[in-house]
Amino acid sequence: MKLLLVDDERMILSGLKRALFGTGWKIFTAEGGEEALQFLEEHEVDLIISDMLMPKMNGAELLEEVSKRHPGIIRASLSGYSDPDVTIKGGFFAHQAFMKPCDPSVIKAEVRRIEEILELFPDRVIQNAIGTITSLPVAPKLFFDVKRTLADPNSSMHDVAKLISEEPAMCAKIIQISNNAIFRGRKEIKSISEAITRLGGQVVTNIIAMLEVYSVSMNEPSKPLEKIQSHSLKVAKLASTLVEPDLKDTTFLVGILHRIGEYVRMKIAPDLMSAFLNPRTKGNDKSHLERYLFKTKSEQLGGYLLHFWGFPLPIIEGVLNHDDPEKLMESDFSPACAVYIANSILSGKTVNEEFAAHFDLASTLAVLEQNHQV
């Protein structure tokens, strides 16, 4: 593992380098953005960790440039700076965020987690493709609706949260930024309502404005994503009715994001994705076509992106496993189990018999199938 640490303060760089000594990683340093970019032109690096507040080129600007020139490099911010604009922009271009002062053990644990992710996805082409993603396609109408609601004095943050929670791409970005160490404190944020409350109206407004600038809006070739959004919302709502109250927020989030990998595909391979989503493409089960066209299943792409965006592990595991009943039977009934059931029912598919028997779902499935006939 090769790390590049960037800070304009030499003492901080020396301290970080000493703290990471003995890990077996190769540690390089740069005293500013321009020096870091020059270094990257000549050396391969797996991870860059940059301070946010630096002269000439700040950390957000550096990470944005790295995302363009070297998309396969994982990007992390290190900041004690609380300016929301810098933090938000850093959140767009950083996969991870650390607070100053940061316990070295936290950085070590996160870097080891990143090593594990890279081992799961050794394909450099996939790493580079996902590394370019700072936001996902969003329907233009949603930007209008959210901005109008934010500007309406009679609207509440609950109204804003409800709108955002219905759009997988916007939902994913809000959750990612809200889990920035500066905003979340010590608690992982696992619901949109909690994220909106923690961020506040002004920060949400700034995020939406930046999303509008950096997001790829859905044009004609990507119209099928509107159907994915609609289906994901239905799955999220139905799945949430199948779990205990303390799991509803996590279940809704897994449901709304369970097809986020298809948004990833639309960003990195729009032409192939449009062909894949075309209703004239024969057959309901397109898993073989999916692997042929893209080599990696969408659940893995979605899980990979959420890993890099620092999502809570239960959400990532739910997205990865929601369509694998055998894997789901290895644990207790979970949000991913509820999403699997809801997705099957709403897609007109039969729930795996062993799965149904394992969780004693015969009566539940009978009611669901009667109430949700496709």
From TrEMBL:
<feature type="domain" description="HDOD">
    <location>
        <begin position="136"/>
        <end position="325"/>
    </location>
</feature>
<dbReference type="InterPro" id="IPR013976">
    <property type="entry name" value="HDOD"/>
</dbReference>
<dbReference type="Pfam" id="PF08668">
    <property type="entry name" value="HDOD"/>
</dbReference>
<dbReference type="InterPro" id="IPR001789">
    <property type="entry name" value="Sig_transdc_resp-reg_receiver"/>
</dbReference>
<dbReference type="Pfam" id="PF00072">
    <property type="entry name" value="Response_reg"/>
</dbReference>
<keyword id="KW-0808">Transferase</keyword>
<feature type="modified residue" description="4-aspartylphosphate">
    <location>
        <position position="51"/>
    </location>
</feature>
<dbReference type="GO" id="GO:0000160">
    <property type="term" value="P:phosphorelay signal transduction system"/>
</dbReference>
<dbReference type="GO" id="GO:0016301">
    <property type="term" value="F:kinase activity"/>
</dbReference>
<keyword id="KW-0418">Kinase</keyword>
<dbReference type="InterPro" id="IPR052340">
    <property type="entry name" value="RNase_Y/CdgJ"/>
</dbReference>
<protein>
    <submittedName>
        <fullName>Histidine kinase</fullName>
    </submittedName>
</protein>
<dbReference type="InterPro" id="IPR011006">
    <property type="entry name" value="CheY-like_superfamily"/>
</dbReference>
<keyword id="KW-0597">Phosphoprotein</keyword>
<dbReference type="InterPro" id="IPR014626">
    <property type="entry name" value="Sig_transdc_resp-reg_put"/>
</dbReference>
<feature type="domain" description="Response regulatory">
    <location>
        <begin position="2"/>
        <end position="115"/>
    </location>
</feature>
